[in-house]
Amino acid sequence: MAKTIFEQMGGTYTQVGDYLLPVLKLSEEEKQANIGVWGMRHKRFLRENHRVLYANLMTSGKLVTYLDDIERQATAMFLRLVKELAENENVTEKLKAENQMLWVQKMNNIRNRATEIVNAELIYTV
């Protein structure tokens, strides 16, 4: 019997009942990747709006690495923005101790603005 393309590339099959199923393994990079909220949002954006890029990344095996990189960039940008905006608006631990509700309101506002900035500049762009 002639080898399939999968076998020619080094793949193997395992028999389950009457069927031969390919043995698929994740690469080490994919096992260690941490795709969180930002990466999943970007993945959904690519899948819905940029299908060709999404398919190319997926078929080349680079999607997980790409999304992990987006996740890291977005997290770093979000944390930096929250810190900078809080400093600019004088939202400190002193305010937290004096007026907790005002501090919560201001921090929620800052986090929402930072989320919108990250979404606009990184997540929903290619």
What attributes characterize this protein structure?
126 residues, mainly alpha, two-stranded antiparallel ribbon
Your description of this structure?
The protein has 126 residues and is mainly α. The protein has one domain. The chain contains 7 helices and 2 strands; from the N terminus they run αββαααααα. A hairpin with a 2-residue loop joins strand 1 and strand 2. Helix 3 packs across helix 5. The longest helix has 26 residues.
**Structural class of the helix and strand makeup?**
mainly alpha
Number of domains: 1
Q: What's the end-to-end separation, in Å?
A: 45 Å
Number of strands: 2
Strand content: 5-15%
Radius of gyration: 22 Å
The arrangement of helices and strands along the chain is HEEHHHHHH
Layout of helices and strands:
Blueprint: H1 5-8, E1 13-16, E2 19-22, H2 28-32, H3 37-49, H4 51-60, H5 63-88, H6 93-98, H7 100-123
Antiparallel strand pairs: 1-2
Helix pairs in contact: 3-4, 3-5, 5-7
What's a quick, concise take on this entry?
This protein has 126 residues and is mostly helical. It contains seven helices and two strands.
